[in-house]
Amino acid sequence: MEPTTTFTIGDAGLIAGVAGLLLAVVFLVLWRRAVAAPAVAPAEQTADTDADAEALVASVIALADLSTSAAQRRQASRVLATVGVERIEVGEGDAFDSELHAAVDTEETDDANLVGQVASVARDGWLRDGELVRAADVVVWVSGSQAPPRAR
């Protein structure tokens, strides 16, 4: 009988963690190359560098969105912070801010104090050097009389 290799849930987490770390290293190497690339044709080089950098940032944000591991999301945040990208800090009970938040749904409430506040965060938002990269998708409290009718 030949020995078989089995993976446990813990092994899968370790493998995912190592893959995340490798992704972070690749991201940093590519980012530094893009930033430090020689200017052969300044206008074209800048456009290519900016597009490459934005694509890398978008990819790491997408991976953070898909990750089910809090450790991997923190790691993605640390990698993004090295290039000036930070998660928008928003939580339940914060006032809805149309400059930083996108209301993707509403929740009815009879508590007038909750109306206009964030009920929950559906997806993190991101800022880069103070500029909006992506608004945070949030659910907002509305009074029962303001709520749109729900499909049944």
Radius of gyration over C-alpha positions, nearest whole angstrom = 21 Å
Order of helices and strands: HHHEEEEEE
Shape: elongated
Give the number of DSSP strands: 6
- How much of the sequence lies in strands comes to 15-25%
Distance between the termini: 57 Å
Mean pLDDT: 81
Largest sheet: 3 strands, antiparallel
> Low-confidence runs (pLDDT<50, min 5 residues)?
none
Please, how many helices? Answer: 3
State the domain count. Answer: 2
Strand order of the largest sheet: 1-4-5
Fraction of helical residues: 40-55%
Kindly list the characteristics that best describe this protein.
152 residues; alpha+beta; Nucleotide Exchange Factor Grpe, Chain A, domain 2; 2 domains; 3-stranded antiparallel beta sheet; 3-stranded mixed beta sheet; 43% helix
What does the model show?
There is one protein chain. By secondary structure, this protein is of the alpha+beta class. It has two domains: 9-83; 89-143, Nucleotide Exchange Factor Grpe, Chain A, domain 2 (Roll), CATH 2.30.22. The protein is built from three helices and six strands. The protein has helices at residues 9-36, 42-66, 70-81, and strands at 85-87, 101-109, 118-123, 126-128, 131-134, 136-143. It has a three-stranded antiparallel sheet. The protein has a three-stranded mixed sheet with strand order 2-6-3, with no helix packed on it. The radius of gyration is 21 Å and the shape is elongated. The protein starts with 8 loop residues before the first helix and ends in a 9-residue tail after the last strand. 16% of the residues are buried.
